[in-house]
Amino acid sequence: MFAGGILFQQLLNLPFTVTGMGLIVSIVLLWILKREVFTRVLVVALLMGGMARIGFSGLIQGEKAAVFGTLHNKRVELIGEVAEVRIFEQSVRILLSIRNGAFHVYFNNHPGFSVGDKVAVSGQFRELKRPRNPGEFDFRSYYHRRNIWGSLYDPEVTTFEATSSWNMNILFSKSREVVRDLFRENIGGNAGALMSALIVGLREEIPDEIRQDFADTGVIHVLAVSGLHVGYVLIIIMALVKIVRLPYRWQKWAVIFCLVLYALLTGGKPSVWRATLMASLYLLAKIVQRDGNLWNIVAMAALVLLIIDPFYLFDLGFQLSFAAVISILFFYGFFEQSLPERFRPSHIDNGLLKGASGLFLVSLSAQVGTLPFIWAFFGRIPVMGIFANVLIVPLVGVVVSIGFALLFFGWVPVVGVAFGQTAWFMSEIIFLIANLFAKIPFSSIEVGTPEPIQLLQYGAVVITVVMLMRKELWHKAALAGMVVANLFVWSWALERKVVDIIFMDVGQGDGAVVRISTDEGTRTILIDAGPLAFTKDAGEKVVVPVLKHLGTRKIDLLIMSHPHADHIGGASAVMDAFSVNEVWDTFTSYESLLYGRIVSQIDERGITYRRSGAGFSINHFSPVHFTVLHPDSAWAVTKRNVNNASVVVKMTYGETSFLFVGDLEREGDKEILAYRHMLDVNVLKVGHHGSITSSTQPLIEAVTPDIAVVSVGEKNKFKHPSSEVIDRLKRTDAKILRTDVEGAIWLKTNGRRIWRYDWR
Description:
By secondary structure, the chain is α/β, with parallel strands linked by helices. It has 26 helices and 24 strands. It has six domains: 2-68; 71-165, CATH 2.40.50.140; 173-325 and 389-443, no CATH class; 326-381, no CATH class; 452-491; 499-755, Ribonuclease Z/Hydroxyacylglutathione hydrolase-like (Metallo-beta-lactamase, Chain A, 4-Layer Sandwich), CATH 3.60.15. Helices cover 50% and strands 18% of the residues. The strands form five sheets. The protein has an eight-stranded mixed β-sheet. Strand 21, helix 25 and strand 22 (735-738) form a beta-alpha-beta unit. The chain starts with a helix and ends with a strand.
């Protein structure tokens, strides 16, 4: 109920005075009302408690965001204490803590700071950006929940005072560095980086390709210190305290103390605190000679964490951690009881088979509960994760044990080398297994971010299957099955034929996705693929992630408006990531290495390639109709300015229409005015990023758009869009939407009206 209160408040956004008063009233009622209604009032009190708690935190967060937001792009001076130092490949990031928040400060080289140092730095302040495209991780919300409010670039150190005192933060930070250095020296390489991640949570040095293998295999959770690692630590600590032969109660208190120290050493992630609290509560029950009820322990651990920080509820680590343990508690017994008796882990005599089968059921149980969160967050389903966990999790346990042995005995020359070599060998086996599983076709399936109805359908299917696994619940399973059938049938029957048009924020370039619901399934059309620059491939960084977020399996049509790098630069990465059925191109004699490489790639993959000119139209994306208005083939090849040879496409769906004009300039505008009777559309993708050379007055008067979308890069060197072009559009009363200001612009149409979808 407390968690429900947090969710209700996020949905309703009631004033804190209302939720606070509701909490006070419910507490007073708890005190004065009779025992018979105590439980009902307690439920209300918990609900109001959750609402008031996050309301108070949100109030403080909003005030800080408003204050620090006024500093965006200004040069400021920050004075505070170094709370964290993280070293990356191309930069060093300092977390600077001041009185009312914290900030990231980026240096090209290590400034020589240590945790606890007092420093003053000046630089350009930038507030944290909201996601620019669908599916992009929301770093702004993530860091705001951690009281981090912005970043400082091009810093200059004005004062520096090395710390001479010690506190808990300094102690644990120094300890992490010592442990990391020990693993570097005795293990080294990727294996040493893995050990640092497993023992103290420092994951920065693990290469991206290894992380990707673990993600594709469905075992990425082992790289984050979580309940699994705390469990191994618990076993090690309990074994050590027994060797010391402490009295029974003192053993338990010693274990609790060591677990808390370990949680602090690893940085205190929600998943670590969950496991630490659960283990501590269970041990506390033993100390006071009470039975430890696991459901009560799980609930109490969650309640304590949410009271401390209600924003934990939106942390993926918190969600996965609690989903996994709850799912194991609930489903493991069901799965075991459903197996024939001789296959149940509790009835197997062989130790190896017993452990493997038990671990498989634990992995399966955890996957059932965590799948909705993995699906929602990553847009993928790790099919092989169940099997990979059976092999990798025990090996991780061995590596963790070796890591702790290395901490205790690494100072002994021969022993340290032996442990280090063993850890290296075991780590390489883990890497090999993860890589092999990742290479299996469909080891994970890209399905895109689910709709709420799909998660509801998943839950209903799971409940029905569980009921079918228990004979005494078969009569109820029939009812559950009918509910499942209704969820699928009605969601299909009530599905609206909606077309999605997403103008992606690809920077200074163009890239739009059109998604069409047809009787044969969803069709995907990509109109341009963003720029390719020295430091950024928009295809790889923006277009492919957006398409995967949407659950795209293939691209039915790729339209390359013209062969400039800011429009086709990302096409190569797109063709590497997805199969493409057909490509449309313009008529031009333009030559470049990039364009030549893309055309060769199209030919090598056997993709249908078409030069599309004025008058060409298709209906095989019915109910959506595409018509090419420009260019004329003979006219286009004579033009030195390839912008004027841009493929101009009109998309029509019912009573709504869209016009994509590429980088068409004045000369091209004059040519398409011959189709004046077809130019009056609802939505115009403004030509050439709003350049003064495009969107001439006659064309704007012919188009008279309701919505004008300008695809343009933030603070671009061309100073696009032109104020004159913007004025022309304003005179038509068009609503002007810019990707540099608002990020990706997602429009929907049902053929009768067009509306904007708030994808954030």
